[in-house]
Specification:
Length: 296
């Protein structure tokens, strides 16, 4: 039987060629280790990894047209100036924008990343803490932003919070408050975006001279809050959860509260209950959070 030739059919091999081209496009667009278009943006003609954050200038620094030391100098920033970074470029350079205008590139090694500790609203949550040999502790909590405190001789501040706890432990209801704060400059003033969060329990054994502090690190680069230790070993033990996923400030503060609760041991709870009458009013005064307000 003789086949009839279809004049509208594609020539032999055409479909195969189309498939090969499509496959090549797919392969070259997803090469492992390369950034996709969604992971980079263009800034003054260069690809940068998007990031929105504030940095403070540690030493006078030039603004460059390109992320290169020998490129055209567009201006400069004085030490102490706060700048808005919108992306990371290759070779330890950051892209800086002011009032919607792309300014240029600044060398990151003379900058210090900051975090803004202001909360636009209260944070609430519930935590169930379990530890072998101790009764379960079920707590509801509210975290409220209190203001900012200056650090003498430094270009950064500390953001202060108040945590109101409402807990049930061994069929006993316990209400108390703990201060919390985050240092808005990186831990040990490094270039890495790692910030220390501290939760304090006061009035346990030696009053304000002996405060039980739980230290947690918010690693923004790894999106984690990580347990770092306690100040008084007799009141603490390693938590069952030593790190919690956190991409935002709010998630980091809630993660720090969860880790702190899990570190307090039976001795801490005994003294907490004993000293409950010494704690101030459990209902904090409501006030509108302000970036310029502070307790000190």
């Amino acid at each position: 039987m003789t086949e009839t030739l279809n004049k509208n059919a594609p020539p032999p091999g055409f479909l195969v060629m189309v498939l090969v081209v499509l496959l090549a496009v797919v392969l070259f667009s997803v090469v492992p280790g390369t950034a996709s278009a969604a992971e980079t943006v263009e800034f003054r003609g260069f690809k940068v990894e998007p990031y929105n954050g504030t940095y403070v200038v540690l030493n006078d620094v030039s603004i460059r047209a390109k992320p290169e030391t020998k490129s055209e100098r567009l201006g400069s920033y004085k030490a102490g100036r706060r700048i808005q970074v919108v992306g990371f470029a290759a070779g330890a350079w950051v892209a800086v924008r002011e009032k919607g205008r792309d300014v240029g590139f600044v060398y990151a090694k003379v900058l210090l990343p900051l975090i803004n500790g202001v909360l636009s609203r209260d944070l609430t949550g519930q935590i169930l803490a379990k530890y072998k040999g101790e009764p379960d502790t079920d707590c509801r909590y509210t975290i409220r932003f209190e203001g900012k405190s200056a650090v003498e001789g430094q270009v950064f501040e500390i953001a202060d919070y108040d945590i109101v706890w409402d807990c049930n432990r061994a069929k006993r209801k316990i209400k108390f408050r703990t201060p919390m704060f985050i240092t808005e400059a990186p831990y040990q003033l490094s270039q890495k975006r790692i910030f220390q969060i501290t939760v304090d329990v006061v009035d346990l054994d030696g009053g304000y001279d002996e405060i039980l502090s739980t230290f947690v690190l918010f690693n923004m680069e790894k999106s984690l809050v990580i347990y770092d230790g306690v100040s008084i070993e007799k009141y603490g033990h390693p938590p069952a959860t030593k790190n919690v996923a956190a991409k935002t400030l709010g998630q980091a503060l809630k993660g720090a509260a969860e880790i702190a609760l899990q570190t307090w041991n039976a001795a801490a709870w005994t003294d907490l209950i004993k000293n409950m009458p010494k704690y101030p009013d459990l209902v904090p005064e409501k006030s509108e959070p302000s970036e310029t307000s502070g307790k000190k």
